[in-house]
Amino acid sequence: MKIAIVCYPTFGGSGVVATELGIALAERGHEIHFITYKQPVRLELLSWNIQFHEVSVPPYPLFKYQPYELALSSKLVNIVKRYKIDLLHVHYAIPHAYAGYMAKQMLKAEGIHVPMVTTLHGTDITLVGNHPFYKPAVTFSINESDVVTSVSQSLKDDTLRLFDVHRDIQVVPNFIDVSKYNNTFTDCQRDMMAEPHERIITHISNLRPVKRVMDIIEVFDRIVAEMPAKLLLVGDGPEKKPAEELCRRKGISDKVIFFGNSSEINKILCFSDLFLLPSEKESFGLAALEAMASGVPVISTNTGGLPEVNEDGVSGYLSNVGDVRDMSIKALSILKDPETLATFKSQARRSAQKFDTKSILPLYEATYELAFENASNGI
Fold first, then answer.
1. C-alpha torsion sign, points 359, 360, 361, 366
2. Same-domain status, 68 and 207
3. In terms of C-beta density within 10 A (0-12 exposed, 13-18 middle, 19 or more buried), how is residue 210 classed?
4. How wide is the angle at C-alpha 322 spanned by C-alphas 248 and 260, nearest 5°?
5. What is the CATH number of the domain that holds 326?
6. CA gap 152, 284 in Å, rounded
7. How many domains does the chain divide into?
8. Does residue 155 register a pLDDT over 60?
9. Domain range for residue 113?
10. pTM for this one?
11. Dihedral through CA 305, CA 8, CA 204, CA 298, nearest 10?
């Protein structure tokens, strides 16, 4: 099958999942065409059945804002015709589902019918997509997709609650290749980051306010008051400088390392003893899953799709949003006793297995078959 994948090419979860999906599909013999404004960060190698097509928006003095949706839909039309694409898979409702629909209509006028699968990832629904300015277009695009998937039951529920959707939504969770998180790196030396007696706590995100980075600092401050520890913060975003300032005020700057963005997440996680994810909202929690696959227990909030990923009392613990005291107590209960930590590490790795690529990829292939069926039946 020839599949065009439209996604954001950045470090965010939707782009990572879309890229890993394309790579996995190519390994199963499908021909994959990534279409976006730059090469996705997780797409390291191109091959005969993995190609990247850049969407360029020519500058024009009439436009205050460059019309990316128009350029994307036109690019989709050209790629579908040139490579005889069988199916479009667009990730993130804004603007990809809308651009995909426009491309379908232009192709239809030429007698070319291409089904479209739309995958909803989170803020495209709960934050941006729900804004009154975008909501009509997002609602229309969802309803006009041949198949719609969401990455968690929680996100499906939110979508049905917030939008007037009259088609079914398939829940296909995010996934990872567990075999890539086997912690066998020869250069994985803990003493590069911490002393042997120190525990290592990690957080990975785009450091936006929704991630509640200040809560991470507060939780770590309570942990380090009870035992030696280091905090590794991976990612970049608007909360980085305020977090650095809070560390200075608390006098713990020497115990916190800010990495910035990194493409070596699995190597960083192999250092870690605990992962913190105190988000205000998470549609799924891909970072938590990556940590679990590395054998790192997770302390997260019980919001959105996180309880579907982080099993309370097994792969880690859940706490209410903003309850840094409860998170700290639960974190210390795991970290203080070596046997307890070893048990949670083993359980976290085992819990991640159900989200392995081998289990989830067939679900996506089934949605593709359903898209062809729905398109042919006019559903």
1. positive
2. no
3. middle
4. 45
5. 3.40.50.2000
6. 6
7. 2
8. yes
9. 2-175+357-377
10. 0.89
11. 20
Q: DSSP secondary-structure letter at 355?
A: G
Q: What are the Cα distances from residue 333, in Å, to 154, 260, 303, 313?
A: 29, 29, 22, 11
Same domain, 279 and 361: no
192 has a pLDDT exceeding 90: no
Sheet holding 50-54, edge to edge: 50-54, 31-36, 2-6, 87-91, 116-120, 147-150, 169-171
Q: Is residue 170 located within the same domain as residue 32? A: yes
Tokens 């989709």 — which residue? 76
Task: Examine the domain organization and report whether 363 and 344 are in the same domain.
Answer: no
104 shares a domain with 86: yes
Separation CA 15–CA 263 (nearest Å): 13
Q: What is the pLDDT of residues 255-298, one digit of tens each?
A: 999 988 877 788 889 889 999 999 999 999 999 999 999 999 99
CA neighbor of 78 nearest in space, from 117, 35, 38: 35
Cα–Cα distance for residue pair 156/283, rounded to 1 Å? 9
**Token couple for 309:** 């990923």
Measured CA to CA, the distance from residue 189 to residue 197 in angstroms comes to: 14
d(CA 7, CA 16): 9
Q: How far apart are CA 98 and CA 267, in angstroms?
A: 37
Characterise 285 by phi-psi region: left (phi > 0), alpha (psi -120 to 50), beta (else). Answer: left
Q: Does residue 288 contact residue 277 with C-beta atoms inside 8 Å? A: yes
Instruction: State the first-to-last Cα distance of the chain, in angstroms, to the nearest integer.
Output: 22
Distances (CA, A) of 293 to 178, 329, 352: 6, 24, 5
Backbone angles phi, psi at 60, to 5 degrees: -145, 125
For residue 236, the model assigns a pLDDT of 92
Looking at the structure, do residues 190 and 88 belong to the same domain, yes or no?
no
pLDDT at residue 186 in the model: 47
Q: Encoding tokens for residue 293?
A: 């696959």
Same structural domain for residues 140 and 242?
Answer: no
Q: Do 315 and 198 share a structural domain?
A: yes
Grouping H, G, I as helix, E, B as strand and the rest as coil, residue 128 is coil
| pLDDT in the model for residue 143 | 94
In Å, how far from its chain's centre is CA 127?
16
Place of tokens 């990730």: 91
CA distance 342 to 85: 48
Torsion of CA 216, 221, 223, 224, to 10 degrees: 130
